[in-house]
Amino acid sequence: KHSSPAQSEFYQAVEEVLDSLEPVLETSDRYQQESIIQRIVEPERQIMFRVPWVDDNGRIQVNKGYRIEFNSALGPYKGGLRFHPSVNASIIKFLGFEQIFKNALTGLPIGGGKGGANFNPKGRSDGEIMRFCQSFMTELYRHIGPNTDVPAGDIGVGAREIGYMFGQYKRLTGRYEGVLTGKSLLWGGSLVRKEATGYGAVYFAEYMLEARNETLKGKKCLISGAGNVAIYAMEKLYQLGAIPVSCSDSRGTIYHEKGIDLDLLKELKEVRRKSLEEYLQTHSDAQYIPVSDYPADGNAVWRLKADAAFPCATQNELSGEDAQALLANGCTVVSEGANMPSTQAAVDAFIAAKIAYGPGKAANAGGVATSQLEMAQNASMQSWTFEQVDNRLKEIMKNIFNAANDTAIEYGQPGNLVLGANIAGFKRVAEAMIEQGAV
Ligand code: NDP
User: Fold this and answer.
1) Taking 60 as the threshold, does the pLDDT of residue 246 lie above it?
2) How far apart (Å, rounded) are the C-alpha atoms in residues 295 and 287?
3) What is the set of active-site residues?
4) CA angle, 70 as apex, 68 and 73 as ends, to 5°?
5) What span, in angstroms and rounded, lies between the C-alpha atoms of 336 and 251?
6) 97 CA to middle of ligand 1, Å?
7) Which atom of ligand 1 lies at the shortest distance from residue 360's CA?
8) Cβ atoms of 379 and 179 closer than 8 Å
């Protein structure tokens, strides 16, 4: 273990997985003999590149681009691209590492990868976004393909960015193929892909509750984030009779006790790309808490009172103190739409309290699973109905819950879905690696 690693997020993710694997590694030395741990923490390939582009003032800007092809034991590398100023090698590496186990848990034939750039899309014109995306793809295209590596969206990368990147890929290669997922429904996208991560995190919460003879109906829910995952988590919560009462962005939190106005939120974030503060112009009964008023040891969202929490913004957005506040306020369900939103102290608190806690690599796997369904539709030149895809998504989330839950029971820690998800995902990848030899 490292006390102050340079790649802190990556080590945080690795330590969590390795801690979970202790009972597996203690009872059998098979994985040690095959050097599985040494191999699995080392990416198969990391690509880092310059992304030069011209801004609206005619100046050349430069960003750092990344693609990490972490593990291909189970299939082509699959994982999103993140465009955010905080992106660095550690963040892409932690996301790629988590993606291996998440993808394994879906039961689908996909390996783990991730990528992105330290580009800040905020305040950039459509033309600037397009030129950035084209430059990014001008390097990335040589590393990806429908049977090798199939990127998707993540923070800062939605349908608009996927469109610009797809256009450039097609122009450079002359091939119209399923090389990216999250595409527009007009040209190769899959129904339900946009909704899948948020819907999936809510389905996962519902399955955790079902095992405890409860449902989400009537529950007050805290949501962080106001992007793709947060919006569709809220949509599904409303459909199931729950009440989402909060959302947040990088500048502040909205608390609206009677329930977030989802149509307004979509208009503000999906169409006009505005700050959440504008929500108050329509709803003066809502409360806005700017980041400057957040508690020093955490995030204002998690200090509100509710029955359930859905972190859907970013990594380490829920501290140990936040977890204690949630528990003290009677929160009994946490389902993670974001990747690694809870710090290790928060995770430990949820597990010790034995609440229904679904870690991101299980609870948010619906997004990548539906991306694989998009690949399957592209490869067979078909498009499935909304119901077909949604039913597959539900079935996959149910299978993921069962795999994590059954594995936790098998290893003597019933209800510990962190342990269950890590072990179940690891075993599938490790067995495939062993069968494929020293690669
Ligand atoms: P979006 O870019 O659509 O939305 C991200 C939201 O989180 C925005 O509201 C953003 O606010 C907020 N946010 C981002 N970074 C920070 C930060 N450092 N501090 C505070 N708020 C922040 O991204 P997604 O909804 O797609 O992704 C959200 C999370 O879900 C990420 O962890 C992602 O890895 C994970 N995820 C996404 C999947 C997908 O299918 N999209 C699949 C699986 C996981 P602002 O706009 O002000 O920056």
Assistant:
1) yes
2) 16
3) 114
4) 145
5) 21
6) 18
7) 44
8) no
pLDDT at 3: 58
> For atom 29 of ligand 1, which residue has the closest CA?
338
Which protein residue has the closest C-alpha to ligand 1 atom 28?
Answer: 313
Closest Cα to atom 48, ligand 1: which residue? 250
- All structural domains of the chain with their residue ranges: 9-14+22-179, 194-358
Q: Is pLDDT at 4 greater than 70 in this prediction?
A: no
What's the CA-to-centroid distance between 154 and ligand 1, angstroms? Answer: 7
Mean pLDDT of 337-354: 98
Amino acid of residue 28? S
In CATH terms, are 9-14+22-179 and 194-358 the same topology?
Answer: yes
pLDDT (tens digit per residue) in 261-304: 999 999 999 999 999 999 999 999 999 999 999 999 999 999 99
Sign of CA dihedral 183, 186, 188, 194: positive
Interface ipTM: 0.99
| Domain covering 194-358 in this structure, CATH number | 3.40.50.720
365 lines ligand 1 (CB under 6 A): no
Q: Does domain 9-14+22-179 have CATH number 3.40.50.10860?
A: yes
